[in-house]
Design brief:
Blueprint lengths: L4 E8 L9 E8 L4 E5 L6 H9 L6 E6 L2 E2 L10 E4 L11 H12 L6 H11 L14 H14 L4 E5 L7 H18 L2 E6 L2 H7 L2 E6 L2 E6 L1 H6 L4 H6 L6 E8 L7 E3 L4 E3 L6 H5 L7 E6 L4 E3 L9 E13 L4 E6 L3 E2 L16 H8 L3 H13 L20 H6 L5 E5 L10 E7 L3 E4 L5 E3 L10
Parallel strand pairs: 3-8, 3-9, 6-7, 7-8
Antiparallel strand pairs: 1-2, 1-4, 4-5, 9-10, 11-12, 11-14, 11-18, 12-13, 14-21, 15-20, 16-17, 16-20, 17-19, 21-22
Bound molecules: adenosine-5'-triphosphate.
Length: 452
């Protein structure tokens, strides 16, 4: 049994809160889909989940279950099972009693043991059925919590960061188990997380939220390759996408360049349609996004079609075993996305930079708050597209030292050292351009009229 969930302009405003925690959220979740709600802390993910579960009143908008109006349906009548981050097990009950507890109400008078044992077999927890939560590891507790959800044969699973209290190895193991279980059962699942890697590996689709507003919903591949705005681009992908401030130069005589200040990137002629569209940005601030795999360290003579030349000074090489991440300074100004951490920390910190970093995220938060103060309305736009303004890093940083603005992924055997100037080849097929409100303009959004 599985079901469709429709959210139409769902909003939630908590008492005494000026801004809605969830703002006109619309989404169709077909039966059997594994949908992940992804976003930074406080963006409203749990509130959406709780409204679906019936644990939170809906301020406005409509919730439909299999096409039927369900705003006022009691939680117990929704046939949904929820799994929480803190496991929420009864400490005085054994695993068997915890798993069987909801069945007492669903199948009164019946023997629950066969259902409990079937569930335990699916989860491989037969051995721990007679232990109490205090006698279980974190992973075992979460399996019991999952068992309690599964044993009810629900039509929807709602999972609120179910793995975030577990260590990395167990997380990845249980992640695979959740994917196997939910797909096997074919039950519609809504899964909340702020971990983009988890979202990408689990979701049929990922819905990215920011400040209560849905930014983009799509397959993991689409959200990675075609982010609608700079926020989604920066939130998804590790290492984070390189975001650089730039302007477009398109003199009347022809040619087009993306100007980073100290270097320019020439766009090859004839210009592609997407690049022709950039002409209207002439003289305006833009943000260029380059994922770490879109740039390689190689001589200009080895450029393939579609690759253009830049150069950078190596600041730091991060050896990762299977690859290296090379931090470079190209002389460009990094763009900062409010609500996410600041741009990358400089590779070679001065003492004052290290002090600032040691002071924790407050300084970065302050930067974002300062930005929000300088550009009112900047953190959220009425149409939900999400304006994301480019910010200059604090001047003191720049005066003290050059900051790495570009991270490039290379093979593990790269032989470069801090201070080396290296040639770079940028693959234009993987170059993103965002306008000064943060919207992606290149590659052009599908709905945009094209110059044909
Ligand atoms: N009961 C409440 N009363 C008032 N404000 C609330 C309440 N619950 C949540 N909020 C606020 O609503 C906003 C969204 O909260 P929510 O828990 O949905 O975010 P989230 O994205 O799930 O965050 P996290 O990942 O940290 O759990 C936050 O600003 C939060 O402080």
């Amino acid at each position: 049994m599985t079901r469709a969930i429709s959210l139409h302009d769902l909003s939630k405003t908590y008492p005494k809160q000026p801004a809605p925690a969830v703002d006109r959220f619309s989404l169709e979740i077909p039966p059997g889909e594994f949908l992940v709600l992804l976003g930074p802390s406080g963006c409203g993910k749990s509130t959406v989940l709780r409204m679906i579960a019936g644990l939170e009143d809906i301020s406005s908008g409509e919730l439909l279950l299999d096409g039927e109006y369900a705003n006022n349906l009691a939680p117990g009548d929704r046939r949904m099972a929820m799994v929480f981050q803190n496991f929420a097990l009864y400490p005085s009950m054994t695993s068997r009693q915890n798993i069987g507890f909801p069945l007492r109400f669903e199948m009164p008078g019946e023997d629950q043991n066969p259902r409990v044992e079937e569930t335990a077999r699916i989860l491989g927890i037969e051995e721990i059925l007679d232990r109490y939560p205090g006698q279980l590891s974190g992973g075992e507790r979460q399996r019991v919590a999952m068992g309690r959800a599964i044993s009810r044969h629900p039509s929807v699973f709602l999972m609120d960061e179910p793995l975030s209290n577990l260590d990395a190895k167990l997380r990845s193991h249980l992640r695979a188990e959740i994917a196997r279980l939910t797909r096997g059962m074919g039950v519609t699942t809504v899964y909340v997380t702020h971990d983009q890697a988890e979202a990408m590996s689990l979701g049929d689709r990922v819905a990215v939220m920011r400040g209560g507003v849905l930014q983009q919903v799509g397959s993991p591949r689409d959200t990675y390759h075609l982010p609608v705005n700079v926020f989604v681009a920066a939130f998804i992908g590790t290492p984070r996408i390189n975001l650089l401030q730039a302007t477009v130069l398109a003199p009347l005589g022809g040619g087009m360049w993306i100007d980073f200040g100290r270097q320019r990137l020439g766009l090859p002629e004839p210009l592609s349609l997407d690049h022709q569209m950039l002409r209207i940005q002439q003289g305006r601030d833009i943000i260029v996004g380059l994922r770490s795999e879109a740039v390689r360290i190689a001589a200009p003579s080895s450029a393939h079609a579609g690759e253009v030349v830049l150069s950078g000074i190596v600041e730091h090489v991060e050896y990762q075993g299977h690859e290296c991440l090379v931090h470079l300074n190209t002389g460009a100004k990094p763009a900062v996305v409010p609500e996410l951490e600041a741009p990358r920390l400089p590779a070679q910190r001065t003492r004052s930079a290290a002090r600032r970093a040691a002071a924790g995220p407050g300084g970065l938060g302050k930067l974002a708050r300062k930005a929000a103060g300088r550009f009112p309305g900047l953190l959220q736009e009425p149409d939900g597209a999400g304006a994301v303004k480019v910010l200059d890093p604090p001047p003191a940083d720049r005066a003290e030292q050059p900051t790495g603005d570009l991270v490039v992924r290379t093979g593990p055997d790269i032989r470069v050292r801090p201070g080396d100037r290296v040639p770079l080849l940028v693959d234009l097929a993987h170059l993103y351009v965002f306008d000064n409100t943060g919207r992606r303009i290149c590659p052009a959004p599908a709905e945009q009229p094209r110059l044909e």
